[in-house]
Q: What sequence folds into this?
């Protein structure tokens, strides 16, 4: 087991399922024998605000939060949120961006502009940027809500944890009738990333 | 068994394992999930109380009667419950009494950033500060034992990162405790002045005993590193941050039993290190005491008092380490403030109210606080639970003195009305205030994630119960029936008329809105088939619908309504001047 603590940041918009994705990740890591700490901010989570879930694992984890510049993987469930949390990514870290836009109220009201060319900007600063069609992949599976598991699949592959057995974790974390679609979304997510 | 639990879940597990019999709370982020999780154990009677004062009084009564009892609240909730809290310190306990204060450094969802550790000093009760979920479980169990052993309520102080952080815990079995015998004892339990005076001596003596206990309590522990010059005294999540930042480069004195402070332990630790740091979030609580002991240390002269700490902040302060080189893109994203949900019934009253001239709106703590954000812009103040009504009275009186031609609307929700709004209403009636009170009754405590309240007709454990009738209560409080306007906020015309009538009224009026929260499962099911959509041929892109601030409606060249988010409330249909928005489907 790797002694170094690994850091995963899941970011998005309230209601997108970052917390559940973090929970599945953490439960899986526990079952593989890691010490795990996780941190999230609720409260505004359902009200369309900007949200993030920190997951840290290793042999012994102290802080429940990740510092700026130290995330091995940042997965953005919404494109603009990738930009907001970019400073958390470690140089050389992997940034997985769901190619999906959710306009915040200042943009809806015309008081601010949704940033253009986010992918280009991110790729220029962070060479480890991968833009994926997670929402579309989930739609193709017939359930847009499992977009979070598509991204989780990509995250797990980035961490080199794709060889582990995750099936028990899904059974423990999601309602029985959604286990299958969640698992398919997870597998599809792994396939979105190259080798 | 090993499990990953949040701090809140772990406190619930710990209370259950400790044989807790009774628990009471009013929901408040970040501590809400303690009771939600404790409520899953049939062995523990759990209730949502109308407010924190009632909750702590319920727990206090149970404790005096011999049961192990717990009351949980967020930091500002302890302000509400401060009255019984201070006197329970004098009375002490029969069955163990644990009071959880969930503080919110960094203000992730609160109106202030108060550090409730000072309450331990002020009320003269012991305080435990767990630093992760494992300790939440262990310390909760220990708290019940300390409470009974020293005849004192115990303050268990958490913070947001502890409450909502998750880490690995070792769960155990419940140890059944018998409800202790109760014997009438006025000198102990009735704090009339003559008895209370005697009890104060007991409280002071108890503090001495607790201080002695803390010196050898396993909740405090030192980790000495040979050759390390730096020593850190820390509590709560501050310990985890410091441990992460300094690793084995420092010795640690971890304070879990943080009031009264173990002074000998601290003196001994300080004598063994060359440079002493105190790492704690928010106020210099430990530091003030340590400095008062004449021990020089570094702390809040370098570390911030405001907001949360992080390992990086600690490393920068203690080691002078530069912050890690963070990647930056020169493309600042706009803010993403939280919003009223798609289909939120509050919008239907805020919209006509926001259009009204010469109106002042005093707000309260709940979803309706989001109505003060653009584009609705309704609301001037947010102070505390209940102040939406009582502050309105002061606003109205001041306006009259100044000769302002304004009408004051005080706004709060159903849960807040039962919490402490009702007393403001009584005040307004008796003292002849002329304002308008609005109760946005969405049939649930929505902001904290849908907890039952006295109007919802269900208890914490899901049993059916009496649902209090808000208009009738208002009438019973002395508001004249013709001045009580009950409206469906999805009907903009009716809402607008109610606002007009209330504005014009010479006497105190009340508006009660009656649509349940859009996020309630039943509501979502019922309205699943209802959708609004835009007829692009009629739409002239005037943007009238955008002024509702509904997150389901966006403009991307054309106006688009997100069909997954829309619940067909139909407000946009009503505001569109070109009749370009239609609603399809039927409610089930």
A:
């Amino acid at each position: 087991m790797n002694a170094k603590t690994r850091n995963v940041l899941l970011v998005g918009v309230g209601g997108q399922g970052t917390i559940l994705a973090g929970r599945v990740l953490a439960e899986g890591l526990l079952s593989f024998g890691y010490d795990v700490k996780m941190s999230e901010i609720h409260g505004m989570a359902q009200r369309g605000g900007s949200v993030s879930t920190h997951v840290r694992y290793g042999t012994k984890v102290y802080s429940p939060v990740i510092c700026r510049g130290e995330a091995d993987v940042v997965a953005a469930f919404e494109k603009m949120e990738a930009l907001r949390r970019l400073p958390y990514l470690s140089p050389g870290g992997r940034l997985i961006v769901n190619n999906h836009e959710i306009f915040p109220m200042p943009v809806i009201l015309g008081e601010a502009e949704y940033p253009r060319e986010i992918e280009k900007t991110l790729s220029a600063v962070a060479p480890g940027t991968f833009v994926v069609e997670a929402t579309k992949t989930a739609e193709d599976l017939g359930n847009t809500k499992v977009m979070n598991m598509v991204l989780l699949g990509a995250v797990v592959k980035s961490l080199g944890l794709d060889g582990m057995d995750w099936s028990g974790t899904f059974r423990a974390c999601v309602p029985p009738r959604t286990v299958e679609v969640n698992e398919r979304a997870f597998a599809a997510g792994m396939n979105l990333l190259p080798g | 068994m090993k499990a990953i639990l949040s701090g809140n879940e772990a406190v619930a597990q710990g209370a259950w394992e400790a044989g807790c019999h009774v628990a009471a709370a009013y929901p408040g982020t970040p501590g809400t999930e303690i009771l939600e999780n404790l409520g899953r154990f049939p062995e523990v009677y759990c209730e949502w109380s109308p407010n924190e004062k009632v909750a702590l009084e319920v727990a206090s009564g149970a404790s005096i009667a011999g049961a192990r009892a717990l009351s949980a609240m967020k930091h500002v909730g302890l302000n509400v419950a401060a009255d019984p809290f201070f006197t329970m310190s004098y009375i002490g306990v029969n069955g163990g009494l644990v009071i959880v204060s969930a503080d919110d450094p960094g203000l992730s969802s609160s109106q202030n950033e108060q550090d409730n550790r000072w309450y331990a000093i002020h009320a003269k009760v012991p305080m435990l500060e767990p630093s992760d979920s494992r300790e939440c479980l262990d310390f909760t169990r220990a708290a019940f034992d300390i409470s009974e052993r020293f005849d004192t309520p115990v303050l268990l102080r958490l913070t947001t990162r502890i409450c909502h952080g998750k880490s690995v815990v070792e769960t155990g079995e419940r140890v059944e405790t018998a409800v202790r015998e109760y014997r009438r004892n006025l000198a102990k339990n009735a704090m009339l002045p003559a008895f209370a005076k005697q009890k104060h001596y007991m409280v002071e003596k108890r503090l001495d005993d607790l201080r002695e206990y803390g010196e050898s309590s396993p909740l405090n522990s030192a980790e000495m590193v040979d050759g390390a010059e730096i020593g850190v005294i820390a509590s709560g999540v501050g310990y985890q941050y410091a441990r992460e930042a300094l690793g084995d480069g420092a010795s640690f004195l971890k304070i879990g039993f943080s009031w009264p402070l173990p002074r000998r332990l601290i003196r001994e630790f300080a004598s063994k290190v060359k440079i002493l740091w105190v790492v704690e979030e928010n106020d210099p609580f430990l530091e003030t005491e340590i400095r008062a002991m004449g021990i020089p240390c570094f702390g809040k002269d370098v570390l911030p008092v405001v907001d949360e700490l992080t390992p990086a902040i600690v490393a920068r302060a203690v080691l002078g380490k530069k912050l890690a080189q963070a990647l930056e893109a020169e493309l600042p994203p706009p803010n993403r403030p939280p919003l009223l949900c798609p289909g939120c019934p509050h919008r239907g009253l805020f919209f006509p109210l926001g259009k009204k001239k010469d109106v002042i709106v005093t707000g309260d703590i709940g979803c309706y606080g989001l109505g003060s954000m653009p584009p609705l812009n309704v609301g001037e103040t947010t102070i505390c639970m209940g102040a939406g009504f009582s502050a309105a009275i002061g606003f109205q009186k001041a306006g009259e003195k100044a000769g302002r031609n304004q009408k004051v609307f005080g706004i709060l929700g159903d849960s807040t009305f039962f919490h402490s709004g009702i007393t403001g209403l009584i005040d307004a009636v008796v003292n002849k205030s002329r304002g308008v009170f609005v109760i946005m009754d969405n049939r649930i405590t929505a902001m904290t994630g849908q907890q039952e309240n006295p109007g919802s007709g269900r208890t914490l454990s899901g049993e059916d119960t009496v649902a209090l009738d808000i208009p009738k209560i208002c009438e019973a409080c002395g508001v004249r029936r013709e001045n009580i306007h009950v409206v469906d906020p999805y009907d903009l015309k009716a809402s607008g008329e109610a606002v007009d009538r209330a504005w014009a009224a010479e006497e105190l009026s009340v508006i009660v809105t009656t649509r349940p929260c859009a996020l309630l499962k039943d509501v979502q099911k019922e309205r699943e088939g209802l959708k609004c959509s835009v007829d692009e041929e009629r739409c002239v892109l005037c943007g009238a619908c955008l002024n509702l601030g509904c997150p389901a409606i966006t403009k991307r060249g054309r106006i688009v309504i997100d069909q997954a988010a829309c619940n067909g409330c139909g407000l946009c249909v009503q505001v569109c001047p070109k009749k370009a928005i239609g609603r399809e489907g039927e409610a089930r």
About this structure: Helices of chain A lie at 18-31, 79-85, 105-108, 118-125, 134-140, 147-158, 167-173, 179-192.
